[in-house]
Amino acid sequence: GIRMQGSTSATGLRRTLAAVLAVVTTAGAAIAAEPGVSSTEIVIGNTITLQGGKNAYGTAAHAGMKLYFDALNAAGGVNGRRIVLRTLDDDNKTATAESNARKLVQEGAFILFGPVEGGPSTAVAKVASELKVPLFGPMAGPPGLRRPLQPMVFPVRAEHRDEFRALMGWGKSTGLKTVAFFHSDSEGGRVHAENVRLLAKELDMELSLTLPAKSELKDDDYEAMVRALLDKKPDMIFNHGSPGPYEKLIAKSKAAGSKTTFMGVNSGSSQFVKNLGPLSQGMVFAQVVPSPWERKREIAREYQDAMRLAKLEGDFSYGSLEGYMTAKALALALKAAGRELSRASLVRTLESTSFDLGGVKMRHAPTEHEGSRFVDLSMVARDGRFIH
């Protein structure tokens, strides 16, 4: 009788151990099944336009991200895990950005992060949507990143539409009534042009001229645009991206005697000042981050202190502050998602939590992935500095 009881007990024990082992194995498999997340690391996949260091904004943005993540890792990372940033250069080519994004996910990135140009950002968003991998913090303003809703895309910076509204509002307040818009001759560019038309209506202004630019502009194209500007005489003009071609248009229009007030969106504002010199004086730009040179907001103070600590105070720029701010936004979201980190838990956290990045607020809702609405205006002073 005793022997029989022992044998039943042993069977019971074996069953219990098997059940416990099954639970442990399942839990281990669940942890292992979340790509890019181990007990010590979170792998972030970053395809960005560096063009081998020739793209000033991309290079600065990447330096800002790295600055934040390095300091974060030195302080213990996020919930005990280091951030590993894997970066590939997409060379501002849409097809390269897409293949980079696929490669990063295939090689085990937890999420995609931080592309900087419109074409590449749109390509990475497509991959994110297809592979059901979150894309966090694309640093570009294409309307397609937000509308219609892309469930896997979480921008941080304000969109171009908010920048357009700020520029036009400022123009109206200074007595300007008619508007011209320089944009890429693409589907995205046409959506931007439609947004400008709607904003003009809302602000009781008039969109009197649109200048769609092909990817390769010849001298004849510029001459035709300058003639249109001299003919229509709009009070103000601003651009959607394409800083190089817009820069040429400004130089040629001013040389031809145009009195139109030239303004611009954030991308390339530092490049304009460097390349146009005195011709950029008085230009007003919309910026999606606070001034990197002033200490008015907490995020700018924190960024400046981190730059000084890294002995980089001579390199303050909009690009590196945007990279730093976007990296901070990701770190706050990862921390809030907790130790049991998964793509699903990160998405849930982002859609249910507002974040203060240090005087710049960010929010996403299940029906609208908005990010920040922060837009500041800066004017180019005589000495080439930006006054906010």
In words, what does this structure look like?
This protein has a seven-stranded mixed beta sheet with strand order 7-6-8-9-10-14-15, with helices on both faces. It is α/β, with parallel strands linked by helices and 388 residues long. The chain has helices at 2-32, 56-74, 94-106, 118-131, 160-173, 187-202, 219-232, 243-255, 269-276, 298-309, 318-337, 343-352, and strands spanning 41-48, 82-89, 111-113, 135-136, 153-154, 178-184, 206-213, 236-239, 261-264, 284-287, 354-356, 361-365, 368-371, 376-380, 386-387. The radius of gyration is 25 Å and the shape is globular.
Name its key features:
388 residues; alpha/beta; seven-stranded mixed beta sheet; five-stranded parallel beta sheet; 15 strands; 18% strand
Give the oligomer, counting copies of the same chain as homo and different chains as hetero: single chain
Number of strands: 15
Strand order of the largest sheet: 7-6-8-9-10-14-15
Biggest pleated-sheet summary: 7 strands, mixed
- Overall mean pLDDT: 92
**Bulk shape:** globular
Beta-strand percentage range: 15-25%
Low-pLDDT parts are 1-8, 20-32
- Specify the number of helices: 12
How would you spell out the order of helices and strands? HEHEHEHEEHEHEHEHEHEHHHEEEEE
Helix percentage range: 40-55%
Instruction: Please compute the radius of gyration using only Cα atoms.
Output: 25 Å
* Cα separation of the termini: 90 Å
Which secondary-structure class do the elements indicate?
alpha/beta
